[in-house]
# Entry
Amino acid sequence: MVWDETGILEKFPEGGLRPRRRGGRRRLRWGYAGPAVADGRVFVTTGFTTRPRGTERAVALGRKNGRVLWTREWEADYSA
# Structure
């Protein structure tokens, strides 16, 4: 395996990490996967349900400002 990343912490600083941005929180609800970051965007999958049906969605957020860039939603059937 090759690791090309730089600036990765070896350990957390005493007192913990400091957030770079606060406010403008997005209510994303539950999801099956963690976020992915690429090309200055954060991609997450989320959903909400009214059993046995629900809606799932993919959301792209701006990495620096957290603004929603786009969303795609689709119906899901959880009865199976």
